[in-house]
């Protein structure tokens, strides 16, 4: 494989804000990729530029640092990193979620053998063999990828995306909440271009006390509402019934996942009765949304199971 560092194939696009230790660890890890023809675009949301020294310390010209001068917010900052990328392909990465070292090698190989798609990545797929490779055409992408009964694991840090396709949909939807914006981004690109998917996750989420998802509960309602609107406005023609079945299933499963991950965290990891009350209020508000009412019974059943497990002391801490 001939690699030209002057013309990288893909950009890791990162937004960061006052987390130099996390960023240092992430950059150290990304620079170990076995496929080396990439750049890393850092969008620093800290007005004081705390990420600058971290980036300079590596002395690697593949790291390109940009200081936003002001805090643009997470999504706008991520979109800035996309705009600044010089490559045909991008990978969206937070400053704290690890990526396996062979990820780009696998994605590049998929692209070489199966060109012409907008997504090359690893998702967790049910009823498929480990590492099985599929071509999912654009007309089937939403129905396959957003249905958690078919695809229980998707992360944008585990897939390479065509930058041109991202630009066509307006980059990451900036609707006032980061929740589900990544899922909308992936789904809308796939709805236009299709993708080549391998049944393996190449990244994972890191859980810690400063995770945005552990706080700011109101943004879950905004994220849910605006995701629904964004999909309604932007999905392409085709089998609308199968697409909306998957979208609604996705939102219902996401609701149960976030509520009970939060409740487990504030019941087992960091017990906080006030937070539990806030989460219960959030759940009630969520199922009042017209398109979420169908999940009310599922939520009640999940609550019963959760209380039994909590009473028996069998709930383990989140990781």
Draw up the topology in text:
Elements (H helix, E strand, L loop, with lengths): L9 E7 L3 H11 L7 E7 L7 H6 L5 E5 L6 H11 L4 E5 L9 H11 L5 E5 L9 E4 L1 H8 L13 E4 H6 L12 H13 L1 E5 L18 H17 L5 H30 L3 H16 L7 H17 L7
Parallel strand pairs: 1-2, 1-4, 2-3, 5-8
Antiparallel strand pairs: 4-7, 5-7, 6-8
Helix pairs in contact: 5-7, 5-9, 9-10, 9-11
Summarize the structure.
The protein has 319 residues and is of the alpha/beta class. The protein has helices at 20-30, 52-57, 74-84, 103-113, 138-145, 163-168, 181-193, 218-234, 240-269, 273-288, 296-312, and strands at residues 10-16, 38-44, 63-67, 89-93, 119-123, 133-136, 159-162, 195-199. The chain has an eight-stranded mixed sheet, sandwiched between helices.
Which descriptors would you attach to this protein?
eight-stranded mixed sheet, disordered N terminus, globular, about 325 residues, about 45% helix, 8 strands, Spore Coat Polysaccharide Biosynthesis Protein SpsA, Chain A, alpha/beta
Helical run tally: 11
Helix content: 40-55%
Give the end-to-end Cα distance, rounded to a whole number of Å: 38 Å
The dominant shape is globular
Strand content: 5-15%
Strand order of the largest sheet: 3-2-1-4-7-5-8-6
Please state the CA-atom Rg, rounded to the nearest Å.
20 Å
Structural class: alpha/beta
| Low-pLDDT residue intervals, each spanning 5 or more residues | 1-5
Count the E strands. 8
What string, H for helix and E for strand, traces the elements in order?
Answer: EHEHEHEHEEHEHHEHHHH
What is the averaged pLDDT score? 94
* Biggest β-sheet description: 8 strands, mixed
């Amino acid at each position: 494989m001939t690699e030209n560092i002057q013309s990288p194939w893909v950009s890791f696009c990162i937004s960061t804000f006052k987390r130099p230790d996390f960023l240092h660890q992430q950059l150290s890890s990304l620079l170990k990729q076995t496929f080396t023809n990439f750049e890393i675009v850092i969008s620093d949301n800290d007005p004081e530029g705390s990420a600058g020294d971290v980036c300079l310390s590596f002395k690697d010209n593949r790291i390109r640092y940009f200081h936003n001068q002001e805090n643009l917010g997470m999504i706008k900052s991520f979109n800035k990193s996309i705009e600044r990328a010089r490559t045909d392909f991008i990978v969206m990465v937070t400053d704290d979620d690890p990526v396996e070292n062979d990820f780009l090698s696998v994605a590049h190989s998929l692209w070489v053998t199966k060109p012409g798609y907008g997504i090359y990545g690893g998702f967790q797929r049910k009823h498929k063999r480990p590492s099985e490779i599929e071509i999912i055409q654009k007309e089937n992408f939403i129905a396959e990828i957003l249905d958690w009964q078919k695809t229980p694991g998707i992360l944008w840090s585990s897939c390479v995306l065509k930058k041109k396709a991202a630009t066509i949909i307006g980059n990451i939807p900036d609707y006032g909440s980061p929740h589900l914006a990544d899922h909308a981004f992936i789904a809308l690109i796939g709805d236009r271009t299709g993708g080549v998917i391998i049944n393996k996750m190449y990244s994972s989420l890191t859980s810690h006390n400063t995770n945005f998802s552990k706080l700011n509960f109101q943004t879950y309602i905004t994220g849910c509402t605006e995701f629904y609107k964004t999909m309604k406005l932007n999905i392409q023609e085709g089998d609308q019934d199968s697409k909306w079945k998957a979208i609604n299933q996705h939102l219902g499963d996401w609701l149960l996942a976030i509520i009970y991950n939060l409740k487990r965290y504030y019941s087992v990891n960091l017990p906080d009765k006030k937070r539990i009350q806030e989460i219960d209020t959030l759940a009630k508000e969520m199922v009042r949304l017209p398109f979420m009412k169908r999940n009310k019974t599922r939520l009640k059943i999940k609550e019963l199971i959760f209380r039994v497990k909590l009473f028996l002391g069998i709930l383990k801490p989140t990781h």
